[in-house]
Amino acid sequence: MAKTNMTATRVAAQTEGLVRAQVLRSARFGHSFQRVTLAGGNLEGFVPLGYDQWFRLFLPSPAGSLERVPAKLDTLAYLKYLALPKGVRPMLRNYTVAAFRPGGPVGPELDIDFVIHASPDGAMGPAARWALDAAQGDKVAFIDEGLGFNAPAGLERVVILADESGLPAAAGVLASLPRTATGTALLEIPDERDAREINAPSGVDVRWLVRGDSAVPGRLGLEELKGEPIGTEEFYAWAVGESAMATGARRHWVAAGVPKRNVTFCGYWKASTGH
């Protein structure tokens, strides 16, 4: 289970029910991402909220079916989903809206960025493999889950920490912040080619931290964060990505006196080697 405090503070989704869509295109994005663009279905009913809007994405089962997808994911529905035989159970993963365009050539378009990297034994995750193989017309479904980013009203100074798994969310947050916002964004990536244009407020210092493919994910970002002066001005702290990085950031901020109400963190995944 992901380590996070987002459950208690998240902003509720405004899109009701199951959204079905189809792959419009799939292409490599930077060094470490495959960007899959969705369109069609009932995507016109999706309500974009900006920031780190995320959703539960259902990909076809090994049998190629999406027939057993639940319309919601409360406790009962989730238990029924888990009870499905693995051969017919759709794959379920959490992803962030990388971009949403309401007026594409064929209607609304939604981008998802899949991180493409292999585990130490060379195996690739099933969602990454699906993204690489995705073809136009392939069907998916998702349930909107709203936002994790929820800064206290009036607080416009931010400190953001993310690795590549949290980069789409961080980019969405930076693009959605008031243009008067200030602060720092530390973005750790495995390769310099993963740096992308970020629509951040001019008062936010965006720093790319290139760790290389062989370094422990999250370590560079956490070390850089710990070297930053906390200062006396109140700020909202937000850290997402590798679990040890995100939880380490929270411990650092709280130990430095940042109010817990001003800290949001989520471990999206766990590296196979420790920090």
Question: What do these coordinates show?
Answer:
The chain is built from six helices and twelve strands. 19% of the residues lie in helices and 33% in strands. It has 275 residues and is α/β, with parallel strands linked by helices. The strands form two sheets. Strands 4-3-7-1-2-6-5 form a seven-stranded antiparallel sheet. β11 (236-242), α6 and β12 form a beta-alpha-beta unit.
Q: Over all CA atoms, what is the radius of gyration?
A: 18 Å
Put simply, the count of helices is 6
Q: Mean pLDDT across all residues, rounded?
A: 92
Strand content: 25-35%
Pick out the low-confidence regions: none
Order of helices and strands: HEEEHEEEHEEHEEHEHE
Q: So what's the overall shape?
A: globular
Biggest sheet statistics: 7 strands, antiparallel
Strand element count: 12
* Helix fraction bin: 10-25%
